[in-house]
Each structure stands twice: as C-alpha cells, then as structure tokens.
Amino acid sequence: MNNLTDLIVNFGNIIELSFPSWNVSHAQNLLTNSEHWVQYNPRKPNNRKGLSVTSLDGGYSGVPDLDSLREFNRVNKTRYSELDFKTQTSIVQDIPEIKVLLNAFPDHGRCHFLRLDSGGFFPPHRDNGAVTALPETFRIIVPICNFGGNNSVWIQEDKIINLDIGRTYFINTTRIHSLFSFVDMSCCFVMNVLATDLSIRTILYNLNIK
Q1: Which of 62, 136, 141, 181 could in theory staple to 38 by disulfide, Cβ–Cβ 3.0 to 4.6 A?
Q2: pTM check: above 0.90
Q3: Are 23 and 97 spatial neighbours (Cβ–Cβ below 8 Å)?
Q4: Is residue 41 part of a domain?
Q5: What is the rounded distance in angstroms from the CA atom of residue 171 to the CA atom of residue 13?
C-alpha cells in the first residue's frame, strides 16, 4: 500500500501539524503590497491569483508553475514535473516561516501563495486522483488572511472545514473539495510535496495531537 494512502487511512483527511504558528501580520503586509501576483491557471480565467515561492528560475512569471502542468505539457510538448520547480523566489527570505517548511519537506515540488479575490472560486474537484490511483504528491496548506468565517469557505466532501489562520495543515485533496471567497485577498500558502518515506515521516513526527 502506498505510504500516503496509509497516512490518510490512519490519521484522517485534515491533520493539523505542530509547526509554530506564522507571524501572519508580517506575511499579510508583504503579500498585500506585493507586485508579484499573476493570474492563477490562466487557461481557466477566474478571480484567482498566485505568487510563486518556488519556480523554474526563481522568478515570478508563474510560467508554468502557476499553470496546469498537465495542460501546459500537452500544449507545449514539454515534460515538466513537480521536481522541476525547486528554485526559491526572493519571498522565501522575507517570510522565515516558509524556509522552515521547505527545509522540513525537502521533497517538495511547486510552492506558492494562492489568492482568491471576491467571487474567486475552485469548483468541486480532486487533485491527482484523476491522474493516478496512488497520488504521487500531497498538499500542505497554511491559511494566511481572510480565510474562513464570513470571508471564504472550503468545502471538503459535504462539510465546511474550519482552519486556523497561521497554522499548518495536511489536507487530503484527492477528496472532492471546493473553495469560494466572498472578499478580496483570501490567501493561503500551498506546498506540493512528493509522497516519499521522508515526507510521510515528517508528517508523523509533527502531528499536533499524538
């Protein structure tokens, strides 16, 4: 059985991790004033933006790290994978909590901040599940600002999930989930992590409740 599958079955689909809470006011200030936001998944226009934390060259173009890799590869006859996006952008030096997570999960792929402005949404979907029965990656999420409450809603299967701002979570996004924002600047940090023995052990060593 795939190690990620073992993790999901034994510990749940939403797991709070014990990493220290972020200094969210600092991160919020930097992100609100950043000029590096670009359209997220430009093939599917929506009120969504992304800011690269890792990319091909350490730049903020979002090409192709903020696009659908599957669609980008098909159209451009390329073969990019998660492991191609390891070069850190300058924001890593500005927000120290990012470096903590990148070091904790060295088997990471693409990492970015995701921003939904008012009306921005992700319709019900699954990550990875339509591609392979045993997902090669999983998601680490840190809500940063205007996340939850009356600001935005994350629905996992048929339930609204509540996440604390600044806390770090493993979320099983192979389950059907959707996200909708009622306000501008609903923002979270997203890590794509390869499901390796090392990354799974990191999850287990950092369970908030053991």
Answers
A1: 62
A2: yes
A3: yes
A4: no
A5: 6
Roughly how many angstroms between the first and final C-alpha of the chain, as a whole number?
A: 23
SS (H, E, C) 149-186: CCCEEEEECCEEECCCCCCCEEECCCCCEEEEECCCCE
Report the CATH number at residue 172. 2.60.120.330
Domain count, the chain: 1
Domain of 133, in residue numbers: 3-31+46-194
- Whether residue 206 is contained in a domain is answered as no
Q: Does position 129 have pLDDT exceeding 90, yes or no? A: no
Residue 4 pLDDT level (bands cut at 50, 70, 90)? low
Residue 130 lies in a domain: yes
State the angle between helix axes of 3-11 and 197-205 in degrees (0 to 180), rounded to the nearest 10: 20
Domain annotation covers residue 205: no
For position 1, what pLDDT does the model report?
41
| Cα(143)–Cα(189) distance, integer angstroms | 6
Would you state the structure tokens that stand for residue 100, as one six-digit string? Answer: 């903590």
Alpha helices in 77-128 (DSSP H): 91-94, 96-104
Select from 173, 186, 177 the least CA-distant residue to 155.
177
